[in-house]
Amino acid sequence: MKDDSALSTFLLQLVFLSFVSIGGINAAVPELHRQVVETNRWLSEQQFTDFFAIANAAPGPNLLIVTLIGYQLGGFVGALAATASLCTPTCLLTYFVAHAWERFKDAPLRIAIQAGLVPVTVGLVAATAYLIARTADQNPAAIAISAATAALAYFTRVHPLWAFAAAAALGFAGLV
Amino acid sequence: MPESPLAAAKPPVPTLGELFHGFLAIALTGFGGVLPWARIELVEKRRWLSGEQFAGDLALAQFLPGPNIVNLSILIGARFHGPLGAIVCTLGLIGAPVALMIVCGALYSRYSDVVWLRGSLAGLGAAAAGLLISLAAKLALPLLHGRRAPSLVFALITFVAVALARVPLYWVVALLAPVSIAVFWWRAK
């Protein structure tokens, strides 16, 4: 699907999303899903979950899901433009806020802002987990993989990459 | 002027090329989340920052909106070489992964129906869901201790609004975040 109006709409959405993704890109996934899958139907549930999985399994930051969606909507240029649209606004903000932050290090309001945002971030990451699990966990084998990965990552210091490798191998063998 | 021992003990300022390589290394080793690798590379191996500096930069990077690790690369690059340093660090961090994703995107659009690839992606998706569940649990755990009832309520409202009611994120952040901040502000007094 190559659709210029879809790409430009998506790029604009990313600029806004950039400013409300408090707590990183995982907190922004529910909104990304709402716009890309539910409102505009640019991607199916399955494609969205696939892209999320690829971006997580690949080396590099999790924001790469946006690169994949950009590629789907506008090829090579779409991939680069989507990445830039998500990163540039907050990069500029970070650059200019850095100095002010040092100055207000111990200000009570700053501490309240930081503490107050934590619960919202927790709720958003939980929402992302729910949305991805809803599509990914459609059969007992998939549910078992999710549960095992969650337990491994929560209770041990084993690198999650091993869980990804094992899960991909099980899927490759036709067991998921 | 002869070099004093004090000046020699101070870690040298990394060049732009070194910054690029450092963040490239972080990106390429950082499977399943980059932040732990950033600490190892920047603090332990290259000693560009002290542990304390890293924690401070990370707090700001996580507090600001946007991808945390990208924000972190901006802060560190800017400290050493201003705007140019910030750009070089960010490109080092996301350049190679973005190129890899473009290759993955091209392969996906051609081969996503192939049976074994569908299977592998189904496995990866399930693992990614599991990793997210553990992340959500790790983040939520501190909210369960002590007098944190309001935190838990705000987290729950956010989850229900965003995951179940599918309220746009903008509304949730615009309405809920100020209330949550106000509660913490009032309790701190």
Describe this structure in words.
The complex is a heterodimer of chains A (176) and B (189). With 176 residues, chain A is mostly helical. Helix content of chain A is 79%, strand content 0%. Chain A has seven helices and no strands. Chain A starts with a helix and ends with a helix. Chain B has helices at 5-9, 16-29, 35-45, 51-63, 68-111, 115-144, 149-164, 169-188. In chain B, helix 4 (51-63) crosses helix 5. With 189 residues, chain B is mostly helical. Residues 1-8 of chain B have low confidence and may be disordered. Classes of the chains: A mainly alpha (176), B mainly alpha (189). Chains A and B meet through helix 1, helix 2, helix 3, helix 4 and helix 5 of A and helix 2, helix 4, helix 5, helix 6 and helix 7 of B.
**Total DSSP helices of chain A:** 7
Backbone shape of chain A: globular
Q: How would you name the oligomeric state of the polypeptide chains in this document?
A: heterodimer
Radius of gyration of chain A: 18 Å
Helicity level of chain B: over 70%
As a percent range, the share of helical residues of chain A equals: over 70%
CA(first)-CA(last) distance of chain B? 54 Å
The stretches of 5 or more residues of chain B where confidence is low (pLDDT under 50) are 1-8
Structural class of chain A: mainly alpha
Distance between the termini of chain A: 28 Å
Mean pLDDT of chain A: 91
The counted number of beta strands of chain A is 0
What structural class do the secondary elements of chain B suggest?
mainly alpha
What is the overall silhouette of chain B?
A: globular
Summed up, the helix count of chain B is 8
Order of helices and strands of chain A: HHHHHHH
Q: How much is the radius of gyration of chain B in Å?
A: 21 Å
* Strand segment count of chain B: 0
Order of helices and strands of chain B: HHHHHHHH
